[in-house]
Amino acid sequence: MPPLADPMLFDPSFELTSALCVKSTKSWSVQKSSDLYRVGGWGAPYYKINSRGNMAVRPFGAKTAPNDEIDLMDTIREVVASQDNITMPLIIRFPDIVKNRMDTLQSAFDRGIARHRYSGRFQGVFPVKCNPDRYLIEEIVSHGRYINFGLEAGSKPELLLVMAAMCRASNDAFLICNGYKDVEYVEMALVARTMGLNTMIVLEQLEELDIVIKVSNQLQIRPVIGVRAKLSTKHAGHWGETSGEKGKFGLSTSEIVQVVKRLRKVDMSDCLQLLHFHIGSQIPSLSIVREGVSEAAHIFCELALMGANMNVIDIGGGLGVDYDGTHSSSSDMSIGYNMEEYAETVVEAIKDATVQKNVKQPILCCESGRALVSHHSVLVFDVFSAHKNGGTGSDRGISYNIDGLPEELKYLRDDFARSLDNGDPECILMCAKKLKNESTRLFKQGLLGLEVRAAIDELFETVSVYVGQQKNDSSMNLVNQNGCDDQCRPREAGSDSSATYHINLSIFKSIPDSWAIGQLFPFVPLHRLESQPTERVILSDLTCDSDGKVVTFIGNDKFGAETANHLPLHELEDDKPYYMGMFLGGAYQEVLGSLHNLFGNPHVVHVVPSKSAGGVRITKFLPGQNLANVLCAMNHAPQLMYENLKERVDNYLREGTLEKENAEVILMSSFSSYTYLAPDKHSRAFHQNKFIYS
Ligand SMILES: *Cc1c(COP(=O)(O)O)cnc(C)c1O
């Protein structure tokens, strides 16, 4: 009986398939990696693969000079060299990308305004809920000073944050107050007006109007009021629930009319100046933008005609990001338009309504969050081990000689042997399954030893991989016959094993949307991209939670598939780190992340191109949370913990069972260490990065 897993003996097409793969491996190129990971689709103009086969950043987008490109592997080296004992994961921020996004948004609207001879101007605000990081907000405010860029808050802490930050903004910049409000919120927003901050209180609920009228009377401060309209326009994607007449937020048309009447009665019609709406995040297509903005623009005009002092229309957020790089308007993970087209559509729709109703053209405000900050950061992490499912062929023959097999199982073993001779894969699988089921049953009754059960489980595993491979090969041959024979999917010659790579990261901390709502992000190795990735991988994180994994990825075939159930990656090399990046996660992920298993915030570095050609300069290093930090977050008191442990340590030192040097491991270093895995300080490896075969 020949070893089953040698595919040449069972699969007549093997030679052909293998020959194609070998040819393709040799002619692999950086361009092929770029196509495989769709870097041009989701990453342009900020990300590319450079000629060294590394991921590189172009911080100024299309205007980036070749000397200003930042090699991400150089960046990691620089960070590791500049800080003691730094290990992954790491968030790398590129402040220049945020500035470029702001400029691109501003100029898109400026151009739309010029093209349509629109008489209002554009003023953006950044919704801080998207990423409330102090330094990010500071960058946005300082860069936005000359374009009157403002901020949006949706809660009291955000309001305080925004008020303090906007002390450095231009006086005309908007400070938009959204979210549910109580008396204290309204007081803060009103007093801010008397400090020269341009706060606009947007009513989310009818009840808030009473609070605003009462507090403004008490404080004798005239408010600037906006209303948030609940539009009938809805989008079907994940965030579409925000919108539509049954949406969670905003006032219905009848409530809006009541607001106008109430304000008229108390002689405050001049205070109502802004109309706000938000169709929902990640709007997939321009037709929805056009419909929603038109509906809102007509509400705006009607309010003006009813005597309100309308001069700002705030179109909310929703400008999307092309996560999967397909430029498609039919998927949650993509968008079928760019910033320029978005702005053009908005300006045109508002212009049309105002011309039709003969109303003064308002200032255009937009609260784009996702589209401004998604691109500016990269989450860098390493792979600490790999677990390959099934064998590679030559070293993994199927042997059914199992020592100590009890009599009751021998007939099933013989059936299995006959099925091997027969060669029908389905039949082989079925016989192996029977053997496995029966052995499990006997084990549960205490009639079978663990070693025998393990041998049978292993046999079954090998057989299922073999059968899966047979099926895959036949479908692959179909593709080949259809003329796509240079399409050599990343797979090891002669096997279709998929591997699980264990990543030094918590999905719950760093990519929560992947777990919570199935959001896809591009994952790409940061190096070795000049060579072909040969493994088909799923990712598994550090948490003790079966949900802590990524099993769906953006598509990676030539046919434009929306998703893939594996990520092509390189085989790990002994003692060498394998670095990967998660891209487009600059919006929402950091703030939504949780402390599951007490994995804390990763380190953050800010990076800009250095003056010397092709170099990088680290402008900020913000250490991630250590063990003491995350324990504090759950109300533990590291000082008390230390004292408890110290008392115990001292007792055991006295008794002589504990050595002094060993005690220091607990008392000296542990509280200040990073929450993630660290490679061995001496070998710089986690352990031998060899594949572990199941
Ligand atoms: C969340 C939110 C935004 C930001 O939306 P993006 O899709 O990230 O641009 C803007 N405005 C309001 C009211 C929001 O709730």
Automatic annotation (TrEMBL):
Domain Orn/DAP/Arg decarboxylase 2 N-terminal: 121-374
Residues the record lists as N6-(pyridoxal phosphate)lysine modifications: K129
Any one GO biological process: response to cold
Keywords: Decarboxylase, Lyase, Magnesium, Pyridoxal phosphate, Spermidine biosynthesis
Biochemical pathway: Amine and polyamine biosynthesis; agmatine biosynthesis; agmatine from L-arginine: step 1/1
Cofactors required: pyridoxal 5'-phosphate; Mg(2+)
Membership in a protein family: Belongs to the Orn/Lys/Arg decarboxylase class-II family. SpeA subfamily.
Protein's UniProt name: Arginine decarboxylase
Gene it is expressed from: LOC112283380
